[in-house]
Amino acid sequence: MYTARISPSDPRAFASLRAVLHDPRHAGTDLYLHLEPGLYTEPHCLEITTRVMVVPVAGPGSVEIAVQGDDSVFAVAGERASLELYGVHVRGAAGHPGVRTAPGTRFRAIDTVFSSGSLKIHGDGTEIVNCRFEDGGSTGWAGRAVSCGTRTSTTRSSPSRTPSARPSAPSSSATSSWEPSPSSGPRSRSPTAP
């Protein structure tokens, strides 16, 4: 798994999610994306074909990802495709799902806000925990829409793989940043974490 830093202002980092996803050096590579605070507006839908983890380095609520066009923000497709969102705000175009997944893919969202659109989930092993749906967003499971309120916590996973639904506290780190480990899922310095 390759770790990439994305920043709208630092010239030493990638400038956008699209820049990392389309970089030929990372073709076919699983990606762990650390996003600096800010708004990331992509010109078109981001196609996810490998395992991709999206994590804001400044914690939940510090990153918003949107699309300029009339499309979804993320499309997850392919036999190795997996998208994990931790604490980001996904703003889809009106009338289009913010995230859409194809059969056989995996999707996980924890502490994420979805607005101006819904989710269209057809993948296996889907997990949505402590997420908020704004602007009338809904979740479609295998083509069936399920309305969600202003605050929703829903978990749906395949029986063969049930990942941890709650962030775990770091072992001995003195840092106050919030980020998941590429191998073990989300990490949190929150005193309420188990």
Overview of this protein structure:
The chain has 194 residues and is mainly β. Helices cover 3% and strands 38% of the residues. It has a single domain (2-155), classed as 3 Solenoid (Pectate Lyase C-like). The chain has one helix and 17 strands. The strands form two sheets. Strands 1, 2, 3, 5, 6, 8, 9, 11, 12, 14 and 17 form an eleven-stranded mixed β-sheet that branches. The longest helix is centred in the first third of the chain and has 5 residues, at 17-21. The chain is globular and about 35 Å long.
Brief write-up:
With 194 residues, the chain is mainly β.
The portion of residues forming beta strands comes to 35-45%
CATH topology: Pectate Lyase C-like
Task: Please state the structural category.
Answer: mainly beta
Give the biggest beta sheet: 11 strands, mixed
> Regions with pLDDT < 50 over 5+ consecutive residues?
140-194
CATH superfamily placement:
Single-stranded right-handed beta-helix, Pectin lyase-like
Oligomer: single chain
How many H/I helices?
A: 1
Shape: globular
> What is the gyration radius calculated from CA atoms?
16 Å
Helix content: under 10%
Q: Terminal Cα separation, in Å?
A: 27 Å
Domain count, please report it: 1
Q: What is the succession of H and E elements?
A: EHEEEEEEEEEEEEEEEE
Question: What would you say the CATH architecture is?
Answer: 3 Solenoid
Number of strands: 17
Task: Report the CATH C-level class.
Answer: Mainly Beta
The mean pLDDT is 75
Biased composition (Low complexity): 150-194
InterPro entries: Pectin_lyase_fold/virulence (IPR011050)
Region (Disordered): 142-194
